[in-house]
């Protein structure tokens, strides 16, 4: 029986596994985390609106009815295309007949990995919880601080990157301060928090219609967010964030809590393939999702550079990954049945970004909506997507509760240190990231221990 | 207006603050954590049955309607009884007119602090999440492990301490393996997990009726737990746990995931007072809850050694702390009104311990119950206690859901490292714990910065 190895249990990888439930194949799904994450709501964990368990489900639980899947918690650190083997960090080598790479993307600091110390990215639950901790600790430190200047600096927050994640973070951060925390403190007024959203390009939400970009900026400003476009980040350090404005003048936002939402790049596993990548480290794949010259290896989701009907690469969105996963599963089945493969056709369902509670922008086809209506659309779509998630009811309950009471049940600070600002926990690069940086071929990384020979 | 400083936002401290809501006093509540914890359910977080946010509520949220309280996130590192000042680690000194010490207890390794590296205690959310991570990672590692001997060692769990916490942990660990995880793995049978509960004394649940102790042991054995009484732990290290049995012969439980529930001792803050303590580091207080010679300083909850009607010190239970909190608040009010203080009278509501789902033991007055009936009693009491918690519905929903489906929505592994067994994160002693170990008087710990002068 063919052995299909899937690397990554996100939207794409999980879709492939589920679609092959009745196929005559043996599947091994490898992920370095034990849970599938509903990433579109990750910013709500960072902003203390939802708890980690509301938006994550163990991969084993998601697949436990499917008997042809084996799940392994491990990290894929390299692929040997010639031998058809994936190198796992702990369990050694894994032979495949078909390989699906769906390991997603990490944060891209554009050549400044040292900034990650101050500016946390938002790609997994650990990072979301770390952001939540830093934001809540900043308010706590401000409450303790007698010096008004220092207090002001503690209440200064900078979100870098004006894409959907940055817009969602800035909007919900402003709301957290203005509504959820406003009654909790005696010395400070949390609503005095300064939230700045920095974007390098000329407008927010670049892939959206310019009218919606303008609407998003207006809606953010209604919430008190300072939106600055055309701004380049020059430096991030203990002082704060040094920014060059559109006219080139530099200013420093001092003592800020900084969140990085400026860019992603494919996981460094892609670099171990030795095939053509785009600038974001994504693997360039053909219309059937496979690597040119390697029809047995598919790449999907945020790791893949696949061209859409408009000739441009498809965006890094959950619907793209899910649809690609379906296409790859279909092609694996067609291979078994001896039928020719079918090319991927992306059905664009549109895009949306939420801006706090009751504000959003959305576009689909020729439709452009913003404000409350867009927000309702956003809720309906996200609840629909959560179908299959056991957490649907919990998320709904939490949302409804938050909406009515402005309380945040998820406002916990975990971790032992009490000071914000000073970086407490540097997010270490994983071993595969280090190895990829050092450009070691995967074979040299460790002696192979055979598994699944 | 009198300034009442409360150290600790647990059951006792929160009770004092709430009871003084309408009193003509200014209150400052200091806690090193931002949340009040429903500690009786903490073991369920460690065993992946509930999420941290289900059993914790931010102290600010719990008190935000009360205008005479200021909440400070900081750690009390010393008390200067002569100057009536509390030393805070970050914010400096805080003057009080009345002081209520309610900082609780930490884990007691009985002279072996180095064991904490392997045997995590269960006193806060960080420790509960760390236990959950180690337990779930052990099953994941067993699934990857080809060697049957190593696999067996990975599935060996040891709970040290046969009090209510140890009994609850061992029971729910056995159930996690037998029911919740049983369908999730392909290579291993999680129900083959070996759970051993070690107790130094002659029986489990020493404070309970001997019949209930025997019943608890029987109920645990029905779940597959090996109960060993009269066993002393000699050593814990990378090898495992070395145990001396009742006859003195030593055996080693190899490669185990170890949880420490063997004892508590009062937070080391008590040692900075320079007053009489008992062997557990608890402050010996009079019948009004105050320190002899210092009627302005009260100690309650797990930090206090107060004698009950039977002449024995009161146990470290939530009802004791809550009732003591009420008594102290009443006495603070009576001082203001110029009335004599009232002594504390403990109303014993009984004790209970749950053993997984549908098993428990309970005693109150002359009533002794065990099994399903005791379990129902346990649920009713805990839901009743959760009144006032915003999480009541969530907890109930989660319980009901777990009961019906055996799924565990909280089965997340967070943190970046993938291997169990080898200690990953040594829980660092806090600064106050270090200072107290070195027996520095609090004045020498740091230069004072005046706050609230």
Radius of gyration of chain A: 22 Å
Q: In total, how many beta strands of chain A? A: 27
Number of domains in the coordinates of chain A?
Answer: 2
Across the major sheet of chain A, the strand order is 5-2-1-9-22-21
Biggest interface between protein chains, with counts per chain? A-B, 60 and 60 residues
Instruction: Please give the largest β-sheet of chain A.
Output: 6 strands, mixed
Secondary-structure blueprint:
The structure is a homodimer of 453-residue chains.
Chain A: E1 2-7, H1 11-19, E2 25-31, E3 35-37, H2 42-46, E4 56-58, H3 59-63, E5 69-73, E6 76-80, E7 85-88, E8 92-95, E9 98-101, E10 105-107, E11 119-120, H4 125-144, H5 148-154, E12 156-160, H6 164-180, E13 194-198, H7 210-222, E14 226-228, E15 232-237, E16 240-244, E17 250-254, E18 257-260, E19 264-266, E20 283-284, E21 290-291, E22 294-299, E23 304-305, H8 318-337, E24 351-354, E25 360-364, E26 367-370, H9 372-385, H10 392-405, H11 431-437, E27 450-451
Parallel strand pairs in A: 1-2, 1-9, 2-5, 8-27, 9-22, 11-18, 12-13, 12-18, 13-14, 20-23
Antiparallel strand pairs in A: 3-4, 6-7, 7-8, 10-19, 15-16, 16-17, 21-22, 24-25, 25-26
Question: What do you see in this structure?
Answer:
Two copies of one chain form a homodimer. Chain A is built from eleven helices and 27 strands. Chain A is of the alpha/beta class. In chain A, strand 6 and strand 7 form a beta hairpin. The first copy, chain A, folds into two domains: 2-107 and 265-348 and 429-443, FAD/NAD(P)-binding domain, CATH 3.50.50; 113-262, FAD/NAD(P)-binding domain. In chain A, the strands form eight sheets. In chain A, strands 5-2-1-9-22-21 form a six-stranded mixed sheet. In chain A, strands 11-18-12-13-14 form a five-stranded parallel sheet. Chain A has helices at residues 11-19, 42-46, 59-63, 125-144, 148-154, 164-180, 210-222, 318-337, 372-385, 392-405, 431-437, and strands at 2-7, 25-31, 35-37, 56-58, 69-73, 76-80, 85-88, 92-95, 98-101, 105-107, 119-120, 156-160, 194-198, 226-228, 232-237, 240-244, 250-254, 257-260, 264-266, 283-284, 290-291, 294-299, 304-305, 351-354, 360-364, 367-370, 450-451. The longest helix of chain A is centred in the N-terminal third of the chain and has 20 residues, at 125-144. Chains A and B meet through strand 4, strand 5, helix 4 and helix 10 of A and strand 4, strand 5, helix 4 and helix 10 of B.
């Amino acid at each position: 029986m063919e052995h299909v190895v899937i690397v990554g249990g996100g939207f794409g990888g999980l879709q492939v596994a589920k679609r092959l439930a009745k196929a005559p194949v043996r599947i091994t799904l490898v992920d370095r985390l034990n849970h599938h994450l509903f990433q579109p709501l990750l910013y709500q964990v960072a902003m203390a609106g939802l708890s980690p368990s509301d938006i994550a489900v163990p991969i084993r639980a998601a697949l436990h009815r499917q008997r042809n899947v084996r799940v392994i918690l491990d990290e894929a650190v390299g692929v040997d295309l010639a031998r058809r083997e994936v190198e796992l960090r702990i369990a050694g080598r894994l032979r495949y007949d078909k390989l699906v790479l769906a390991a997603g993307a990490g944060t891209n600091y554009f050549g400044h990995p040292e900034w990650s110390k101050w500016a946390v990215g938002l790609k997994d639950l650990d990072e979301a919880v770390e952001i939540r901790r830093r934001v809540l600790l900043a308010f706590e430190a401000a409450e303790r601080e007698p010096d008004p200047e220092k207090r002001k600096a503690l209440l200064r927050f900078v979100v870098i990157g004006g894409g959907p994640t940055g817009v969602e973070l800035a909007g919900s951060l402003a709301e957290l301060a203005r509504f959820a925390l406003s009654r909790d403190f005696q010395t400070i007024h949390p609503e005095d928090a300064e939230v700045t959203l920095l974007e390098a390009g000329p407008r927010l939400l670049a892939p959206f219609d310019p009218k919606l970009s303008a609407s998003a900026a207006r809606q953010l400003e209604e919430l008190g967010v300072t939106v600055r476009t055309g701004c380049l980040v020059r430096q991030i350090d203990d002082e704060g964030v040094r920014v060059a404005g559109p006219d080139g003048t530099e200013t420093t936002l001092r003592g800020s809590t900084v969140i990085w939402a400026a860019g992603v790049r494919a996981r460094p596993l892609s670099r171990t393939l030795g095939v053509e990548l785009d600038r974001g480290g994504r693997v360039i794949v053909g219309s059937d999702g496979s690597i040119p010259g390697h029809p047995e290896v598919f790449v999907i989701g945020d790791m893949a550079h696949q061209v859409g009907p408009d000739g441009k690469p498809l965006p890094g969105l959950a619907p793209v990954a899910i649809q690609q996963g379906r296409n790859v599963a279909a092609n694996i089945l067609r291979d078994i049945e001896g039928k020719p493969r079918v090319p991927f056709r992306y059905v664009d369902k549109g895009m949306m970004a939420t801006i706090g509670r009751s504000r959003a922008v959305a576009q689909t086809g020729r439709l452009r909506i913003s404000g409350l209506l867009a927000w309702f659309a956003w809720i309906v779509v996200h609840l629909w997507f959560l179908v299959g998630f056991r957490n649907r009811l919990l998320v709904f309950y939490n949302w409804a509760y938050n909406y009515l009471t402005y309380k945040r049940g998820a406002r916990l600070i975990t971790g032992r240190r009490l000071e914000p600002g000073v970086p407490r926990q540097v997010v270490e690069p994983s071993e595969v990231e280090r190895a990829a940086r050092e450009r070691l071929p995967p074979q040299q990384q460790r002696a192979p221990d055979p598994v699944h020979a």
